[in-house]
Prior knowledge:
Blueprint: H1 9-24, E1 30-33, H2 39-48, E2 69-75, H3 83-92, H4 95-105, E3 111-112, E4 120-133, E5 138-139, E6 144-153, E7 166-169, E8 176-180, E9 187-191, E10 198-200, E11 210-219, H5 254-264
Antiparallel strand pairs: 1-9, 2-4, 3-11, 4-10, 4-11, 5-6, 6-9, 6-11, 7-8, 7-10
Helix pairs in contact: 1-4
Amino acid sequence: MSTNVFDNLKYNRLAIRNHQYYKKAKPFPNIKFQNFIEKNLAYKLFKNFPNYDDDCWIDHKKYGRNKNTNYKKAQHDERFLPDIFRNFLRSLNSKQFILFLETLTGINGLIPDPYFIGGGLHIAKEKGYLNTHVDFNWHHKLQLHRRINVLIYLTPNFKKKNGGQLELRNSNNKKIIQEYEPTFNSCLIFNTDSKSFHGHPNPVKGNIFRRVINAYYYTANRPKNEIYNPTFTKYGKVIKNKIDPKKFKITYSPFAQKLLNDYKKLK
Length: 267
């Protein structure tokens, strides 16, 4: 019988032991775990991580010309990823991992994203950066609120001198409150809402690549004061306007509709 890496009772203990720490962390609930998955698995993922110049990455038209993120690539479509990543991503969507996250964060009813929209595998090379921002807040395809981010770093020997630190900032995006090195086999988990500014504006330095697996989690409801109209990634303040129900519909998102339309056209 095959086992899920997250069947290990280690994760149950981690979640229970760190729940209060997570809730009280500043500037918003967050935590970093070192040596998160079994070492041999972490190295296998590293060795099978696609190269920066492979053709599996999403081809962005603005590549090399985007002021808010540059020299950084991503792929959320599992069809373009090695089998080891397809299997690991499914583990991140498993019952045991969801229960781990619910226990740690205190957010009940978390739902994983089988599409891994905006997530999956990310890689940045020298000079690569991502300016601080707040995330898209609504999954049009699933009709769910985005609540939790999970980032697992997969570059051995990534040092402080290599930059690329993940910054967590205060609610007006002016002050760094917490800063995390993307150390190998570490996992960063944090809440996401309209004020959870984060990013790695400090570019990657040296002949090294910043490799990370991103997975996001959702709920059907969220506190009323956290509900804003759907937004894409925002690099500035999010304005709370009057709620417009039509903006939450699947038909409001061409991308969400394209997923199904493209599937129907497969040959």
